Amino acid sequence: MSNDLIQTNTAKLTAAFASALVVAETQIHDDLAYNSIKEWDSTAHMLLIAELENAFNLMLDTDDIIDMSSVGKAKTILAKYGVAF
Amino acid sequence: MSKAKDRLSFAHRLEQFGNAIALRLPDGSTISYLQLAKLADSYSSTLDSMVPQQTLLALRFNSGLSAVVAYLAALRSGKALLVLAPDLSDNQTLALVERLQIAAVIQPSGDIQLTGRQHQVRPDCALLLSTSGSSGSPKSVMLSLANIEANARAICAYLPIEPTDTAITALPLHYSYGLSVLNSHLYRGASVLLTEAPLMSKDFWQQTRDFNISSLHGVPFSYELYRQLRLERMPRPALRYLTQAGGKLNSSLTDYVQQLSSTLQKPVYLMYGQTEATARIAYLPPKLLQQHADCIGVAIPEGELLLRDPVSKMLITEDLVQGELCYRGPNVMLGYASSAADLSSDTVLTELSTGDLAERLPNGLYRIVGRLSRFLKLQGKRLQLDHLEQQLAVFTDPVCCAGTDDLLVVAYTAQKPELREQLQQHLREQLQLHPALFKVLQLHTLPVLANGKADYQVLLSLAMETSDAD
């Protein structure tokens, strides 16, 4: 897997989070967790799932949607769908 | 306890269910009806020793055991209680304390903070609920014990709640719909799992499975989440039925709910209500879901729906004639309270004007066709648009608000670059709205009708044409 692709995927992921949570991209790091900031609530989570599904052109399983409890966890889950970080 | 007192409300009759489980906690512990009655009475004694009689208390109502005990303690011992969102800001709480002269604020932990204020509350006022969910609106609905009891009784008469059922706190308890789920289950001797886990979390869905949750309740937004989670694919054998209220479903969600019901082979109850009627007003019998999902259905037991001409207020008796939807029933509130003086009023409302325009079909079902008063229901939160315009006028004037139940539109004319950000920040932080739910537009002039009044329809179509500027 090329570094370029990984960089692109990371950028896409960061953009999806920033857009759904409406926070600056600099605030997006692996430890950022669901419900740890007020911006990441149920509404934002739902938009986030839609953004991620669009950005990576995939459809997440129910268990993965509710398991996506942090940015780091999102990467682990997306990796199962063949998205490299 | 005397017989007369037993009749007051389900909260007074907790003991009758003895060792049956009233509340379950996510850690697996349980509280029986007898234990709950004891906890409530012991908490009442604490309140009695600290707070003057017949004053108003406020509760930061989360979905924890201590808060539920405090709520039942207030009902059982006849103390008027205003319920608040647990995360209401200190500033908003203080403003309410001043405005309503609240004597004490109860924290979710049960801790009691005295305020030094006090005002005599009318003896028949048991509970005050906000009409707008979590925004800390100064306008509250005053409910009597009889109101709360009647609505729980009616709900138990049309929903298939069984004593063996366990509901889950999928909706906040400070919200009339969420509270009605708790009340109706306690009325029936069933149990409620008290969870703080958000709807969009692994914990929540694990709990629905582990605790054999028998029903799911949701506002339109909850059903958007169910759709995204593909609830129809989740095996939940204990789930027997679902309910929906808190605003009309849009057409794509209606399709989803119909599919969900037929895929799961489980009834979905579409319900209509207002906090002014304690919670529930009407429901659509679930066998009519596929044919008549555009209707609110029929009045709940003991209630009556009627239509009135919006201008003359004359009763409309013909089918298919539009009028303002009005409701009569034992669950209609005492009145509104927006100041301490209102708390000692002696008004009794017998008929509620809903502000919705409706018609009755020849088959007897009622259908909402529009709205007389200007409010939106965004994710179950009611926003009074005129009130919002007044709030936003602090930032800029003129300002105009319009919208649908999916989108709030705010338009202004002043050419100040920082204004847009200020308005967005207010909507996000004070009203807790996600930016996907609103659009802020800067226009040269605000659209007006020939009579000089704001043209909300034009504003709405302008907003629909405008793509997001940011």
What proportion strand of chain A? under 5%
Biggest beta-sheet profile of chain A: none
List how many beta strands of chain B DSSP finds: 26
Unreliable spans of chain A? none
Q: Please give the largest β-sheet of chain B.
A: 7 strands, mixed
Biggest sheet of chain B, strands in spatial order? Answer: 6-5-3-4-7-8-19
User: What is the CATH superfamily classification of chain A?
Assistant: ACP-like
Number of helical runs of chain A? Answer: 4
Could you tell me the mean pLDDT of chain A?
91
Integer count of domains of chain B = 2
Category from helices, strands and their pairing of chain A: mainly alpha
Task: Average the pLDDT over all residues of chain B and give the rounded result.
Answer: 92
Briefly characterize the structure.
The complex is a heterodimer of chains A (about 80) and B (about 475). With about 80 residues, chain A is an all-alpha fold.
Give an account of the 3D structure.
The complex is a heterodimer of chains A (85) and B (470). Chain A has helices at residues 3-21, 42-55, 62-67, 71-80. By secondary structure, chain A is mainly alpha-helical. Chain A has one domain (3-80): Non-ribosomal Peptide Synthetase Peptidyl Carrier Protein, Chain A, CATH 1.10.1200. In chain A, α1 runs antiparallel to α2. With 470 residues, chain B is of the alpha/beta class. Chain B has two domains: 3-370, Rossmann fold (3-Layer(aba) Sandwich), CATH 3.40.50.12780; 375-465, GMP Synthetase, Chain A, domain 3, CATH 3.30.300.30. A seven-stranded mixed beta sheet of chain B has the order 6-5-3-4-7-8-19, with helices on both faces. In chain B, strands 11-12-13-14-15 form a five-stranded mixed beta sheet, sandwiched between helices. In chain B, β9, α6 (176-188) and β10 form a beta-alpha-beta unit. Chain B is globular and about 65 Å long. Classes of the chains: A mainly alpha (85), B alpha/beta (470). Chain A binds chain B through residues 22, 34-35, 41-47, 49-50, 62-63, 65-67, 69, and chain B through 198-202, 204-205, 221, 224-225, 228-230, 233-234, 379, 428, 434-437.
